[in-house]
Prior knowledge:
The protein has one domain (28-455). The protein has helices at 22-94, 99-127, 131-161, 170-242, 248-308, 313-327, 335-343, 359-384, 388-459. By secondary structure, it is mostly helical.
Amino acid sequence: MTIVQAGRPGQAVPAPPGTPAPARRSVPGRIRVISGITVASLALLFAALAAGSTSARDGLTVIGRDAGPQVVATAGLYLGLSDMDAQVADALLMGKEYGPQRQAAIAQYERRRSEANQALLKAFELSGDNPAERQTVQSVLDGLGRYERLAGQALLLDTQADHPAGPPPQKVVEVYRQATDLMRLVLLPQAYNLTLESGTIVRRTYDEKSVMVPTVRFAVIVAGLLALSCLIWLQVFLARRFRRVFGPALLAATVVTIVALVAGVNVLGRDLQELRTAKADGFDSVLTLARARAISNSLHGDQSRFLLDKGRADTYEHTFLDKSQSVIYLEAGNLDGYQAKVAQGAKHFLGLLGTELGGSDGERALDAYTRFQDADAKFRALAASGQASEAVSARLGTVRESFDAYDKALLKLAEQHEAVFKRATDAGESALDNLWRLLPFAIGGLGLLVIAGVWPRLKEYR
Length: 462
């Protein structure tokens, strides 16, 4: 029988020989656990930074480098198509009296046709695997081929007629009617819809990133605060357990974490702002001005069609008014009333250019538009008084000059917004590049600093 001797009250029973003290056994384990949690929180911080910067870069790439510029290019499709039809109308109107100008109009027609084909290729690339958009591109291509055949036939008949400046023979007008109806009723609406469909890629990307980037930015803040808390927890534990001041390595790790957190939050916030600037002040304005230029070019063609086809003169006058009001809207029941309001110098208006004509350059564009409408009114007065030859001369002279000045003013505005677009994209990408250059050094440095702060304490238990 084994007799167990009880210890005295309050006296601890000694542990078996060779068994380490519980306190000494638990300290290395707790150091490892707290260090592991700290490292995991730091990894979470850098994972959030990587996710946020990747999301922001994707948004900038889609809007600023890929889809955005391609959508603007497809917007040029409408301009190219409308100008093709306008140049044909000009050539038919000139007759034999404007030989060099007629050749220049035909050359411009060929250039616009090439630009339209290039825009269609970009639209096809942008459509990706979307069968509806690809079908629209194919439909425009097929329709464009039919238009070119009709336009070529009209130009050939016009050359054979050898008529003076003014409306060509009726057989030429009838062929041109088929061509312009195909352009105005089929091709131009399809081109406009194609641009709208392509623009959904940019809008969808912007909507996604404008939600995701702030969310990830908040996650970075939470992860950073958690990492800092863990670092402080580790330093406090080591200082209390070993009765020493805070270690310089872990203090340096805390400073590096703060720097990475502040830099990451600032970069993501800046990228979000640059993304908004690129979309709102860059892409949207450039696309709006591209549409305004295209519609303006189409209404400029309606002036030639007004003289070219007497049977549809009223129709082309009404379409000129409709397109003018889509560009700058002023309430008016007819063209005379509209042009009178434009001449009064209205400052508050709607339409495509309603929000784009601010600043000195915007005022110059508005002044150019006013002069263009004034030239149109005088040109129509000549046509109404039966002075057909003088009306043709005005259309090819003062009206064209005033339109060219207006178009150049719009183009200058578009170039300014393109500069904003590019500047915002470059600034956002540059900030991300700087962050990505910082992250590897921060990750490596933090790893070494944590090891340097913990390893000496663990060695004391070996």
